[in-house]
Design goal:
By secondary structure, the chain is α/β, with parallel strands linked by helices. The chain contains 4 helices and 7 strands, in the order E-E-H-E-H-E-H-E-H-E-E. A hairpin with a 6-residue loop joins strand 6 and strand 7 (about 110). Helix 1 runs parallel beside helix 2 (about 50-60). It is elongated and about 50 Å long.
Length: about 120
């Protein structure tokens, strides 16, 4: 949504909405309906704890773990999901696109922000 600045310029501001709620609902639904027997959550958001507890109550045999980003960790999630682990910075670096990617159909070049390196 465009927001006005004092100088009269506008910019687009994106806000995350209900992501953790959607993850929680999907996790519980999938475990309850036996659509999944295992899940990996890439988050350190302890707001997901009630959903994880519910999913494990519905199916104690379910294997649920968290993968924590570098510099992110939740003792509560680790306690609920002992198989959880931290993804190292080197793995993130290996998974990045090249510094520049060119779209072959349009010729447009996309550049990765330098602070992502």
């Amino acid at each position: 949504m465009p927001l006005p600045r004092r100088c009269g310029k506008t910019w687009t501001h994106y806000e995350e909405k209900e992501t953790d709620v959607n993850i929680a609902v999907s996790l519980v639904a999938d475990i309850a309906q036996q659509a999944a027997t295992s899940a990996m959550i890439i988050s350190a958001d302890s707001d997901l704890s009630p959903a994880i507890r519910t999913a494990l109550t519905l199916n104690p045999q379910a294997h649920i773990m968290a993968a924590f980003r570098p510099k992110r960790f939740s003792n509560e999630l680790k306690r609920l999901m002992p198989a959880s682990f931290t993804i190292g910075r080197a793995k993130f670096a290996q998974a990045q696109l090249p510094t520049k990617v060119q779209d072959s159909s349009s010729g447009h070049t996309f550049e990765r922000p330098t602070h992502w390196a």
